[in-house]
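ok here's Acyltransferase, seq below lol
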Amino acid sequence: MKILGIEFAPLNIPLERRLQTIGVLHHTYAFLFFGFGMLFLFLYLLLFTDYYLIPLAYFAWYLYDRPVSQRGGRRSEWVRRWPLFKWGAAYFPVQLIKTQEIDPSKNYIFACHPHGVMCHSHFINFASEGTDFSAKFAGIKPYLTVLSGQFMFPVFRDYFILSGSIEVSRPSVEWVLTKEGTGNAVCIMIGGALEALEARPGSFTLKIKSRKGFCKLALRHGAGIVPVFAFGENDLYEQIPNPQGSLVRRLQNFLTHLFGFSPALFHGRGIFNYTFGLLPFRRPVHTVVGAPLDVKKVEEPTDDQVSDLHDQYCKALVELFEKHKFQYGCKESDHLNLQ
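and the structure came out like this:
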């Protein structure tokens, strides 16, 4: 039923699809509002109520527990296996595709592309068991890396830590690669916040040419690099036009560098309509995990060694995309644009 150009969802939707909507609603609204919501609640309790001891006690806990997000986190398999994540994966659906066995006697950096607006598929794949990661990659423990600022929000930080997420910082990544044994996969969105501004249907632009830090870390610790490409992640939202050089893009770039996250101007569908809202569109996402690049340990890699490994990785990523693009909805004319 359409009213004023908005297509509303029918009332007689099957329970299964309603649960799927709840699953993706949980991730979307937690990502957008949970952190700031808890921050404002704690400030309100501290400044305007008699319950000021609650935020004070939490702040003491935060100071004590703060390093954990840089020291392997504190994952809970119970949390990772919540039905919410299964429902969220089925909403799109998100599928995790393994192309090759990965040796659990080694450590890895999973280089994930594209970032998308909200990293829906990467969160479902690596910060939960929504797509059965542990069953598909036996012996491999994924650590999704997210902005350090996410771990400054009260309660929200604990939620992220329980999902198996850690800070995307050098000390955090090195801790996992050196202190947690073997069979670890540090999952990094290589393009970062700026790449989110390129996330729109039909876009294959990746911010990677100047992103070489993951290659340097891989060399220092002898960690294999695994290319990961999520076909369909950029199709989940529409963005307003923001071409390079436009006023909108210049303002977005400024705010991204200032705050560390990208102010993408996007829309998807709503809870009760298919036309406009904050939920992603129901479009399939196929996350293809490629073959690991074997990396020999070099304690002090030179710039040339880092650049050579980066070139090898970019070539492997392009090959992965070209090999699978027809299977997952791309056209002959679709190619990666590495920037």
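fwiw The chain has a mean pLDDT of 94. kinda neat tbh
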